[in-house]
């Protein structure tokens, strides 16, 4: 049985057992009273006590909070203070002094993120490099070579040889006339809703926004004037509302599970229960297609780990839907175009596509399979050696995994279209041959393609 399926079953059984237990308000755990804390499951439910005989154990995260884990290392619940778990009304001054709408700009607010960080190696544990399994290299052509739907093929980690924006632009540069960050956010949200992704929404006019504007004109046949803020705001009003909205952090948001950090060493990645987010801000930024630093900038002083906290986020709208019949990966533009059977442009995404050292293939290939939330099989024999690792490793799924939340396998072995743990670098850096998108763009595309779809690489 797949080890992730086993762990999921174990976690479900423990949670059901805990949920079925009768509440005890003054329960004792480890000799101390629990009136001032609650144990919160990943879905936001409260556990009052642990029934005898449950196959669980306690650990601590880097902030010293207790974390309840099952025998597979999955997070069952996280300890949170009662005063922090139950919603509290936001301070009035949080609105009165909101720099996002202030006339004097953003300033440099201080930000300290507190609260539970779960699913991690305890902070007092000394991390030692584990020896890898002594196993022979597999023959990729052999009949018994593992071909699991749960794991991505091998694609080396992303390299960052330099900012590609230093190259001459392929499209004329678009100049904005005195636009503020909120106005640029409106442009980015407008493009995102239209299905021409600007990448991370961060209030900056960069090459990804420029490419999206030209893709919008290709898709609609209409010229978009990014300096006409009034027209853009009116279009946003008709297509889902203003570009910024309020969001209330939920108990499930705060509970996670999260990991304290993602190690660089692949052998240590393989020891973690998942490649989960490292914080509530990272998770929420991806959910709302935002740059994480920009999310914090919009909400100075906010404690993102407290349920009931009201924050400001951008409103990207619904994911694009449709049926994609052909994908064009433009290496020079660093952009992916998705077309339907009639040849109409359905969506466009900024991408990192190959490099001069490890170029992407040329010509036509096909989509072979689509895997959501895939694990990652590291095999130095096929592609590259990471650190001192010289044997096969299975890295668990998660948004911070080497291929993010999606793997679209192509008919050219080891190549695919996939997500990334670093969305802000998409379109600005290089990859080792594959097509790398933000996790949300890769997920949107994955739901519109099927095996057999043609992918054409053009120079």
UniProtKB/TrEMBL annotation:
Domain L,D-TPase catalytic: 325-458
This protein's GO CC annotations: extracellular region
Highest taxon of source: Bacteria
GO molecular function: peptidoglycan L,D-transpeptidase activity; transferase activity
An annotated GO BP: cell wall organization
Family statement drawn from the similarity comment of this UniProt entry: Belongs to the YkuD family.
Name of the molecule in the record: Lipoprotein-anchoring transpeptidase ErfK/SrfK
PROSITE patterns: LD_TPASE
Keyword Cell wall biogenesis/degradation found: yes
Pfam families: YkuD (PF03734)
Keyword Aminoacyl-tRNA synthetase part of the UniProt annotation: no
Catalytic residues as annotated in Swiss-Prot or TrEMBL: 418 (proton donor/acceptor), 434 (nucleophile)
Biological pathway: Cell wall biogenesis; peptidoglycan biosynthesis
Signal peptide interval: 1-27
Keywords: Cell shape, Cell wall biogenesis/degradation, Lipoprotein, Peptidoglycan synthesis, Signal, Transferase
Organism: Rhizobium azibense
């Amino acid at each position: 049985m797949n080890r992730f399926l086993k762990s999921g079953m174990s976690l479900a059984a423990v949670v059901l057992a805990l949920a079925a237990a009768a509440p005890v308000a003054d329960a004792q755990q480890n000799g101390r009273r629990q009136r001032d804390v609650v144990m919160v499951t990943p879905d936001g439910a409260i556990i009052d006590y642990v029934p005898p005989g449950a196959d669980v154990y306690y650990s601590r995260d880097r902030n010293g909070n207790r974390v309840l884990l099952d025998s597979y290392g999955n997070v069952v619940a996280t300890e949170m203070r009662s005063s922090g778990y139950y919603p509290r009304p936001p301070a009035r001054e949080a609105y009165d002094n909101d720099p996002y709408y202030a006339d004097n700009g953003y300033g440099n607010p201080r930000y300290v993120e507190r609260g539970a960080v779960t699913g991690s190696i305890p902070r007092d544990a000394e991390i030692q490099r584990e020896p890898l399994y002594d196993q022979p290299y597999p023959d990729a052509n052999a009949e018994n070579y593992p071909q699991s739907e749960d794991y991505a093929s091998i694609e080396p980690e992303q390299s960052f040889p330099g900012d590609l924006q230093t190259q001459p632009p392929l499209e004329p540069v678009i100049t904005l006339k005195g636009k503020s960050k909120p106005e640029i956010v409106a442009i980015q949200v407008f493009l995102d809703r239209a299905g021409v992704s600007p990448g991370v929404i961060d209030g900056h006019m960069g090459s990804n926004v420029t490419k999206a504007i030209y893709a919008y004109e290709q898709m609609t046949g209409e010229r978009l004037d990014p300096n006409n803020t009034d027209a853009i705001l009116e279009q946003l009003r008709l297509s889902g509302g203003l570009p910024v909205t309020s969001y209330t952090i939920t108990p499930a948001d705060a509970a996670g599970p999260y990991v304290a950090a993602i190690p660089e060493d692949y052998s240590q990645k393989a020891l973690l229960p998942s490649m989960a987010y490292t914080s509530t801000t990272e998770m929420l930024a991806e959910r709302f297609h935002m740059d994480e630093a920009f999310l914090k900038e919009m909400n100075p002083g906010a404690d993102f780990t407290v349920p009931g906290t009201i924050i400001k986020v951008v409103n990207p709208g619904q994911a694009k839907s449709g049926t994609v019949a052909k994908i064009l990966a433009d290496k020079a533009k660093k952009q992916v175009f998705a077309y339907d059977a009639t040849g109409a442009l359905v969506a466009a995404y900024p991408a990192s596509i190959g490099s001069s050292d490890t170029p992407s293939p040329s010509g036509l290939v096909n989509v072979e399979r689509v895997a959501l939330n895939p694990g990652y099989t590291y095999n130095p024999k096929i592609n590259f050696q990471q650190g001192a690792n010289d044997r096969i490793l299975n890295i668990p799924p998660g948004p911070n995994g080497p291929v993010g939340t999606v793997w679209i396998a192509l008919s050219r072995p080891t190549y695919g279209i996939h997500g990334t743990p670093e969305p802000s670098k998409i379109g600005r850096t290089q990859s080792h041959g594959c097509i790398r998108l933000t996790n949300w763009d890769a997920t949107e595309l994955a739901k519109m393609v099927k095996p057999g779809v043609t992918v054409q690489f053009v120079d």
